[in-house]
Specification:
By secondary structure, the protein is an alpha+beta fold. It has helices at about 20-30, 45-55, 105-120, 135-145; strands spanning about 10, 65-70, 75-80, 90-100, 125-135, 150-160, 165-175. It has a domain at about 10-130: Gcn5-related N-acetyltransferase (GNAT) (Aminopeptidase), CATH 3.40.630.30. The termini are far apart. Bound molecules: coenzyme A (COA).
Length: about 180
C-alpha cells in the first residue's frame, strides 16, 4: 500500500474558511475546558464569520492563521485580536487552539512562531498578551518556551460548572 503524504500547512484564514472554523470551534470546545466556549462553539453565523474574516484581511494589527492537513482538514487556529485606538492598537490578544488528536506534534509551537514573526513585521504590535487558565500546564509550558512571561495571577477569570478558576496573564514584548 502506498504511504499517504501528510503535509501540515499554515496560512492566513480566508472567508471561505468560515464554515470549517465554526465547526472547529464546536469540536475543540467539546474537547477541552480551557477555552472560553464549550461544545456550543463560537455561536456565530457563517455569514457573520465570513464578513469578519474578510475585514480581518485588511487589518494590520489583527490576524487569524489556520493549520491544515493537505490544505483540507483544519487542525489548528491561532489569532491575534486588537483595536484601532491610538493608545492600545499596539496590544494584540493571542488565542490558540489545536485539535486534541494533534497535540504534542509541534503545531502549537509553529503557530506561535508564525504569530510572533507576523507581529514583528506588522510595525504596529509591540505587546502580545493572553490570559490562560491557571491549570493549563501544557499551554503555559508552550508560552514559556516561546518566551512569554507570566505577569500575574487573576482571580475568577473562568467559571466552569459553578466553580471559579484563576487565570494567568502572560505577555511577549515585541521590540
Ligand atoms: C495548548 C495547545 C495549543 C498546545 O498545542 P500543541 O500543538 O500540543 O503544542 P506543541 O506540541 O507545539 O508544544 C508543546 C509544548 O507545550 C509544552 N508542554 C507540553 N506538555 C506539557 C506539560 N504536560 N506540562 C508543561 N508543558 C507542556 C512544552 O513546552 C512543549 O514543547 P516541547 O515539546 O518542545 O517541549 C493545545 O494543547 C491546545 O489547543 N489545547 C487546548 C486549547 C488551549 O488550551 N488553548 C490555549 C488557551 S490559553
Amino acid at each position: 500500500m502506498e504511504n499517504e503524504k501528510i503535509e501540515v500547512m499554515i496560512r492566513e484564514a480566508i472567508p471561505a474558511d468560515a464554515k470549517d472554523i465554526l465547526a472547529f470551534s464546536k469540536k475543540t470546545g467539546a474537547e477541552t475546558d480551557y477555552l472560553t466556549y464549550g461544545p456550543e462553539g463560537l455561536e456565530l453565523s457563517e455569514a457573520f464569520e465570513e464578513m469578519y474574516l474578510e475585514g480581518l484581511m485588511e487589518k494590520e494589527n489583527e490576524i487569524m492563521l489556520v493549520a491544515t492537513i493537505n490544505n483540507e482538514e483544519l487542525i489548528g487556529i491561532a489569532s491575534v485580536g486588537s483595536n484601532d485606538k491610538l493608545k492600545t492598537q499596539h496590544v494584540g490578544e493571542v488565542g490558540i487552539t489545536v485539535a486534541e488528536e494533534f497535540w504534542g506534534f509541534g503545531i502549537g509551537t509553529v503557530l506561535l512562531e508564525e504569530i510572533e514573526l507576523w507581529a514583528r513585521e506588522s510595525g504596529i504590535i509591540r505587546r502580545l498578551e493572553l490570559t490562560v487558565h491557571a491549570d493549563n500546564e501544557r499551554a503555559i509550558g508552550l508560552y514559556e518556551k516561546m518566551g512569554y512571561q507570566q505577569e500575574g495571577r487573576m482571580a475568577r477569570v473562568m467559571m466552569i460548572d459553578g466553580e471559579f478558576y484563576d487565570g494567568v496573564m502572560m505577555s511577549l514584548l515585541i521590540d
